[in-house]
Amino acid sequence: MAVRAMNTYSIFRSVPSPPLAALGSCLHHFTASQWRPHAKIGFRLPNFRSGQAGLLGYGSVRSYSSESLVESVMEELGSLRKRKRICASAKVGLTNSGELLEDKLERKALQKGLLLEFKKDSERVLLAVAQRPDGKKNWMVSDQNGVTTSIKPQQVTFIVPGAENFDHKEISDFIEKAQNNLDPSLLEYAWVELLEKNKSVTVMDLAEMIFGSAEPLESYCAHLLLSKDEIYFTVLESKGSFSFYGPRPASQVEELLRRKLAKETAEREFEEFVQLLKSAKSMPPHAKPSKSSWEVEENIRNRIKSLENYAIDACENGEQKKTAGMILRALGLSKTSASALNLLIVIGYFPVHVNLDLLKFNIRTDHSDEIISAAECLLSGSSDPDEDQGTGRTIGVGCELQGHYHLAMLMACTSAASLNLLHSRLGHSSLSKLKKLVPSLSSLFIFDCESCQRGKHARSSFSSCVNNRVEAPFSLVQSDVWGPSRVNSTHGFSYFVTFIHNFSRCTWLFLMKSRSELFSVFQTFTAEIKTQFEVSIRTLRSDNAHEYFSSQFTTFITTRGILHQSSCPYIPQQNGVAERKNRHLIEIARTLLLHANLPTKFWGDAVLTACYLINRMPSSVLKDNIPHSLLFPSQPFYSVPLRVFGCICFMHSF
């Protein structure tokens, strides 16, 4: 052991330099009298003697000078400061070149001619070119559909770098080229390389990496890949429309890929189950699969069980409701218990005359032969139901005539109790029918039955004053949305909306793919009325559907001074004109399809034809006047000769 003496005291030194924490724990044990000042490091060091070798707790004992101790302390302090700087830089965000993320993500101001991507609504993202400022912050842009819109800066999701003075007419070609360049597998290769280098990138960096160029088209392609990616990259930092991306850890990517594969497998199994249901529906009754065949595989059994519980309103949990709803929606059926019941009957799982009460209360319907034979013996030995059980007397004698039993002689109906019994046996028939069946009751004028009063009461008729006809053209337009249809039309439509001119009862009908299209359809309708008739709509009457109360719709009618009248909840009679018009249109369209033997997918053409014909037929509300004649008195009824709907036609080229 080498010992070096200095300043009359010695320090023991081990082979590795002791950490700062060990030094602190050692110094803590000394009293104030053991410390003395040291100018170089600014605190007191204790006097150690040779016998105090084990204070630092470092194995083999060697000489340790005060100068080497100071150097070790300073090294520890330096490494601690370095670690703090690294943590601080991680909070701010550093690229691999040391460049701050805040500098890298410098926000670019909007200016005319920039190509940008913005969020139109919760479902649509469009490309557009900035045209001019609209107020202090908003901008007017021309999107890929040629529509000029005012957007807020918060709606901008991406500004294509390098795309300046861009012509909005070239957006469609730009999008087509970008779609052709998209290859999600490129992200995997980039992720592997960036993960190895522990490197983060911007959109332009990724475009340079996978396409070899950071031109506008390649940068936009890289943005599309990153925005749609849910596996390989995550957003580290965002500032406005600019983001900085980093590769996910390998373990996380592996888990996300596993979930994606499981989701795709579940979707594939669900699609196979839906196809199985469709094939079972198309089979003839004698060829449908048996009930036991639906219970062989676990996945099929669980889905069928969900449909069964949904049909009898006995779902055990929310997952069964969700599964049944997904199946019904995939088959184009409404999410009701009746739809689930009809589906199970059509595929042969339930018999046609199924008893839902037996299913709901889980009552057995299959019994052994012994139980069935015993029940038959009890039923065969029962007494005549027309015999009085107490006295054995016959209480009535009658004969059948034209499907009715006429009681020629009533022997035991003199008391009120007997009359109530007869009334109950005859299914609570009215007093007038009882008098015809039992002549001895002809002198009876009043007969009270509480069950009849509760079961046969009817709602009083609704006042028709709210549906009176107005006198001025377009002072009132009534509207209603019908749908969704169980089967989409030939052009993919699922809804239609009607606008009824109250004065003439002339109807405009527009087909829609979703309810959200109502606003654009109403804009088109009001523009047509303003142009063709040089008047403005004064009042719009509709039900309480959400699409009539969207922010866009409300702003539009408010700025044009249109009053909006809505019916009270669950009282469709207040909008009776539109409700009855939809019923009339559907009845005519269904009849046209049945007569022409056409499939249901042609319902869109049928309902448009029905609207055209109804507008040209006499109306009892108008005292047999024709709606088209009242609104267009100088125009002919039919622009082309009428033909039977669905008939064969030929096209000639002249």
What do these coordinates show?
There is one protein chain. This protein is α+β, with helices and mostly antiparallel strands and 654 residues long. Helix content is 39%, strand content 13%. It is extended. Mean pLDDT is 77; it is low at 1-64, 84-98, 382-388 and 409-417.
Tags for this model:
654 residues, alpha+beta, 5 domains, five-stranded antiparallel sheet, five-stranded mixed sheet, 21 helices, 13% strand, disordered N terminus
**Number of contiguous helices:** 21
Helix content: 25-40%
Low-pLDDT regions: 1-64, 84-98, 382-388, 409-417
CATH architecture of the largest domain: 2-Layer Sandwich
For the secondary structure, the number of strands is 16
Mean pLDDT over all positions? 77
- Percentage beta strand: 5-15%
CATH superfamily of the largest domain: Ribonuclease H-like superfamily/Ribonuclease H
User: What is the CATH third-level topology name of the largest domain?
Assistant: Nucleotidyltransferase, domain 5
Protein structure class: alpha+beta
Largest sheet: 5 strands, antiparallel
Strand order of the largest sheet: 6-5-4-3-7
The Cα radius of gyration reads 42 Å
Total number of distinct structural domains: 5
Task: Give the distance, in angstroms, between the N- and C-terminal Cα atoms.
Answer: 118 Å
